[in-house]
Amino acid sequence: MQPGTLNRLIFILLCCILIWAPIPLGSNRPWSWSLLELLIGTAFLLHLVQCWRTPQFELLQRRYWLAVAPLLLLTLWLALQRFSPWPFFASVDPYQTQVMLLKTVFFVLWFVLLLSYAQGHKRLRLLALAIVIAGALQAFYGVVLQLSGQELSPVIGMDENNKARGSFVYQNHFANYLALALSVAMGLLLSQLSSQRRHRDWRQLSREVLSSILSAKFMLRLAMVLMVVGLVMSRSRMGNAAFFTALIVMALAALWFYKRPPALLKPLVISILLLDMVLIGSMFGLEKLQQRYQDTSFASEARDNVVVDSIPLLQQHFWTGSGGGSFYTVFPAVQPAPYSGFYDHAHNDYLQFAIELGLPLTAALLLWLLYLGWTAFQVMRRHEDKLLRGLCFGSLMALCHMALHSTVDFSLQAPANALLFLTILAIVVVAGHSPNSGRTTASRA
What we know:
Its main location: membrane. By secondary structure, this protein is mainly alpha-helical. About 70% of the residues lie in helices and about 0% in strands.
């Protein structure tokens, strides 16, 4: 096999893994995340073969070392918690910390693989398309199950309970996944819109509308409509609120800072808010989502009690953490009374990471995310390449959405969601290191 053929094969495998990850219950069961690790490990072994057969092909290019450093620090920290001889550093649940350590190792390998193979204009576009395909497949499956009226999902026989969940166990993980995929789709669509503002007569406008209907942009827009319907039918309150808040915030930011914003940016955002959310959403259960908002009260939300009751754990494990994955082990000690359900997560990613890993490391990881957000903002503001600007717009939307959604949920604890989020971060890293010279006239705004 030629080195170039192996290179393409590895990239295709990465796209297939991305599409596969959410299918087996969001890869959130031991057997499914083990399979995901096996697939990533196989891709990395092929990467090692590529490096061995092509000496000039590096394991990881030096310009990306700093970007991977925070993930390596997290891996080292978990290893110390698992194998530390010092009692103050050792995990209270070594087995769960070992599971999280193994997941993190493969996430690091995934990140390295993306930085090595998702380079260049064409591959970034294909990677973004793979994300959109994965989100559209999940939305289609979730919507069809809901509209069919089945009480139990096929294959695994899970109770649908009038909430779309795709192939995920938890509808909020499904909503989070769709919101991340929608953000990337939004960025991809923006990269295909013209920034030229010109007067059109009705004949020119008709031709452009017909051309758009027959183009890939129309298919992308249909995928976005499908994902919005799936998001609404998930009945996830913060999932919906966080996505549309992120969309509005980023649209306003783009109007001020985007390098030559697309002429149709405002109509596109308005169409998503009005056509997708209100008109189409009302056909597929928007009123049920509104009812969930109206019925919400802090008194009825056990997850708020979990957050409040978890604060003493943060005080006890402030510096080094209780150990990765150990929240459900340490929480019963501070739980004052049983809740209506079993809570093995804090329903707040910030708090859970701080309890399990310690506040200093959690703060370091947050600073890394802020840095990547700033990098995406600079690309969106200054870069000449429309695709990179669009993808960084979508990445900032995803970061904004995750920042909001993580205050009330634990989406990063689901391997499929974590994998998708890391993929979006990798896109930002690659875009941030791309030369700002513009590829072709077609790629310029």
